[in-house]
């Protein structure tokens, strides 16, 4: 049985490393509620100029962002499918992970690996974006091996999602698209809140968010966000502890210049594996924890510091420079039971391993934006040059563990220390230059973009026992492009069509060949329509797409000299075709709603003989979701009360690429209730109680991906008491 399968299992299909932009205003400011006088966060988010993707909109509805074009562009003029998770949605749903944050967005498949708090792993349009599609403030958040940056949702003010290949602006990225995580930024008006939470599995959490001007005279604003959590999970020996702190400073000496510095440090403790034992005799997942409670620690420390600078040179030109340095270290031990013992089948033979990984990445993106007219044509021209550097180091060792006793499966077993046997060091440099012109003529917008990337990858792979080192150098280069056309009617309807490509160099090595991976390439054709209803805060979108990807990375069981192991391999061609529908609204009557439907037909066009022509595992043909929140009117006895409810339908899919195992369809329900005590009396202004439940009916079906099976995460209930002033 693969020794690292339970550890790497959350990382399937497609891979990469390192990308770009900058914010101009903070998040929502504070105001006084007209009815109660209580301080409340304004729902409208305003941003001007280029930004790190900060969303313009109101309530649940985002209407513009810099994510789709690196310039602040209305969604109606962006020639690709784009949507958002706003601050208002985060407030109502109180997500505890990035997967929960994205669970109601179209095309997004979360939960393909069941319960697993260790990784933020998900796919869009059938393609895994764990390595290639996570961006932070329009700059790539890289990943390699098990070194994946963890995201704390409380540190976000929103997420912008651009679906489909997008390398023309962002360089190395995947076929599915990109998710731009938007960090909380300093606010102009004071914002202060503290919150206590208690939830299922002894989950204790305290958090705070403080922001505003440093003083009354200097143009300097700050924000400090933090939390401390001590939590168990539904799986024995798998904790979800975290300490998190994120300082930010904005300096705006005049209307033409702005500098924002964003920092973060976190320490997260979890398990080396969270997998359930898969019985090879029945081919089904059991309720037995496959790991060893005495050998299952995983501690990850990560930090980042970066800045976003913008200066308007004159009425035409704006210069931006955005940079970030990120680092993480993960140290983990794991064991995994894989088969009944030949002499005593009540005992399960177990393997064990240990690893220590470090990832350090730096990126700097320089932009010049020019706005001008040539006759009847208005231009927003963007030139850019970015540089990215990644260093990945991995120490890895494997061994054996005492067998698991099925009569007492949660008992710990002593494991002898496991020395490291291999050391891999990989350095990757990437430089890219790009240009984009958004040409506006009457109601038409033509978007033309092109980029060229040069990538150098040097890998040293050492067997520690002998000292033998294999050095491999790889040089890649590629052109990426996008062309799109939109037409915006005067009543808010905007049809569009586009063609885009992506290029993604891959970090890590093939453990079978001990060679680095070739780049992954993809291309997309998309046609769609967006409709911003007049006199209504409602956005409707629809998109049809076709994506072809070559040289993707997948996890597959391979017989190595040390035994069978689940490793990344590279081969083949995938094709994804589908339809996405989305509706988002926030109305004056207190109702906010987001709903989506996705049809994804994804097949293996070229691949292993036993899977060619088959459907890709764990990609449902049909997915749908709806979440609604309703705040009671002021003139009713229930004023101050709000209720929310959601349902997520995940259609059936295959559990392996040979299509011999099938996942059943399922519907998962979520709910929320919250109460603002200021409705009782003004002396309670700023005090709010909220309870959120995820998977309300505790449905824990089996779900299989890549031939290995997991269980859906069970019901969680979290109560929170927040005070704002």
TrEMBL record:
Domain TonB-dependent receptor plug: 77-177
Any one GO MF annotation of this record: signaling receptor activity
Alphabetized InterPro entries for the sequence: Beta-barrel_TonB (IPR000531), Beta-barrel_TonB_sf (IPR036942), Plug_dom (IPR012910), Plug_dom_sf (IPR037066), TonB-dep_rcpt-like (IPR039426), TonB_sidphr_rcpt (IPR010105)
Signal peptide: 1-31
Domain TonB-dependent receptor-like beta-barrel: 251-696
Pfam assignment, any one: TonB_dep_Rec_b-barrel
A GO cellular component entry from the record: cell outer membrane
An individual GO BP term: siderophore transport
Subcellular localization: Cell outer membrane
Keywords on record: Cell outer membrane, Ion transport, Iron, Iron transport, Membrane, Receptor, Signal, TonB box, Transmembrane, Transmembrane beta strand, Transport
Membrane topology recorded in Swiss-Prot or TrEMBL: Multi-pass membrane protein
PANTHER family, per database record: FERRICHROME IRON RECEPTOR-RELATED, FERRICHROME OUTER MEMBRANE TRANSPORTER_PHAGE RECEPTOR
Family in the record: Belongs to the TonB-dependent receptor family.
The protein's name: TonB-dependent siderophore receptor
């Amino acid at each position: 049985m693969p020794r690292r399968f339970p550890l790497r299992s959350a990382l399937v299909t497609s891979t990469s490393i390192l990308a770009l932009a900058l914010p101009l205003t903070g998040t929502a400011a504070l105001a006084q509620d007209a009815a109660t006088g209580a301080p409340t966060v304004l729902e409208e988010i305003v941003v001007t100029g280029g930004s790190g993707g900060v969303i313009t909109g109101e309530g649940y509805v985002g209407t513009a962002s810099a994510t789709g074009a690196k310039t602040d562009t209305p969604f109606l003029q962006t020639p690709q499918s784009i949507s958002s998770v706003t601050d208002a949605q985060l407030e109502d749903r109180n997500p505890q992970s990035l997967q929960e944050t994205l669970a109601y967005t179209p095309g997004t498949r979360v939960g393909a690996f069941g319960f697993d708090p260790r990784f933020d792993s998900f796919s869009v349009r059938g393609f895994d974006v764990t390595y290639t599609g996570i961006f932070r403030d329009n700059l790539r958040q890289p990943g390699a091996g098990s070194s994946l940056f963890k995201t704390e949702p409380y540190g976000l003010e929103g997420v912008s999602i651009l679906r489909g290949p997008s390398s023309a602006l962002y360089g190395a990225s995947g076929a599915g698209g990109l998710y731009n995580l938007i960090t909380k930024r300093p606010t102009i008006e004071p914002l202060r809140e503290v919150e206590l939470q208690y939830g299922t599995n002894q989950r204790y959490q305290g958090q705070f968010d403080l922001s505003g001007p440093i003083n009354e005279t200097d143009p300097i604003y700050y924000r400090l966000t933090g939390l401390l959590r001590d939590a168990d999970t539904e799986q024995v020996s798998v904790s979800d502890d975290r300490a998190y702190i994120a300082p930010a400073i904005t300096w705006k000496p005049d209307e033409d210049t702005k500098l924002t510095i964003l920092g973060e440090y976190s320490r997260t403790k979890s398990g080396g594996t969270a997998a359930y034992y898969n019985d090879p005799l029945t081919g089904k997942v059991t309720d037995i924890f496959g790991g060893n409670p005495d050998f299952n620690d995983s501690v990850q420390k990560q930090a980042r510091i970066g800045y976003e600078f913008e200066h308007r040179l004159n009425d035409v030109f704006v210069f931006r420079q955005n940079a970030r340095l990120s680092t993480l270290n993960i140290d983990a031990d794991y064991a995994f039971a894989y088969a009944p013992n030949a002499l005593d089948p009540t005992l399960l033979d177990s393997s064990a391993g240990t690893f220590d990984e470090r990832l350090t990445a730096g990126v700097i993106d320089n932009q010049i934006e020019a706005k001008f007219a040539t006759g009847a044509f208005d231009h927003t021209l963007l030139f850019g040059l970015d540089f990215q550097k990644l260093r990945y180091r991995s120490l890895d060792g494997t061994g054996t563990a005492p067998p698991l006793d099925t009569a007492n499966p949660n008992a710990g077993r002593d494991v002898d220390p496991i020395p490291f046997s291999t050391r891999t060091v990989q350095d990757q440099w990437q430089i890219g230059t790009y240009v984009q012109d958004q040409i506006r003529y009457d109601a038409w917008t033509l978007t033309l973009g092109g980029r060229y990337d040069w990538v150098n990858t040097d890998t040293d792979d050492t067997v520690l026992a002998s000292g033998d080192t294999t050095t491999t150098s790889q040089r890649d280069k590629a052109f990426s492009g996008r062309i799109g056309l939109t037409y915006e009617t005067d009543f808010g309807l905007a049809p569009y069509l586009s063609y885009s490509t992506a290029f993604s160099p891959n970090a890590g090595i093939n453990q079978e060949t001990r060679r680095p991976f070739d780049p992954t390439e993809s291309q997309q054709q998309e046609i769609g329509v967006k409709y911003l209803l007049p006199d209504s805060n409602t956005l409707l979108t629809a998109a049809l797409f076709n994506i072809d990807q070559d040289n993707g990375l997948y996890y597959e069981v391979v017989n190595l000299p040390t035994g069978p192991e689940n490793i990344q391999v590279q081969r083949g061609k995938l094709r994804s075709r589908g339809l996405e529908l989305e509706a988002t609204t926030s109305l004056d009557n207190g109702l906010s709603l987001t709903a989506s439907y996705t049809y994804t037909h994804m097949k293996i066009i070229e691949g292993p003989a036993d899977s060619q022509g088959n459907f890709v595992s764990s990609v449902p043909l049909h997915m749908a979701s709806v979440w609604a929140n309703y705040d009671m009117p002021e003139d009713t006895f229930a004023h101050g009360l709000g209720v929310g409810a959601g349902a997520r339908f995940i259609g059936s899919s295959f559990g392996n690429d040979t299509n011999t195992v099938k996942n059943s369809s399922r519907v998962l329900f979520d709910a929320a209730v919250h109460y603002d005590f200021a409705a009782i009396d003004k002396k309670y202004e700023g005090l709010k109680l909220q309870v959120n439940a995820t998977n309300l009916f505790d449905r824990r079906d089996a779900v299989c991906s890549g031939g290995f099976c997991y269980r859906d995460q069970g019901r969680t209930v979290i109560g929170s008491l927040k005070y704002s002033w």
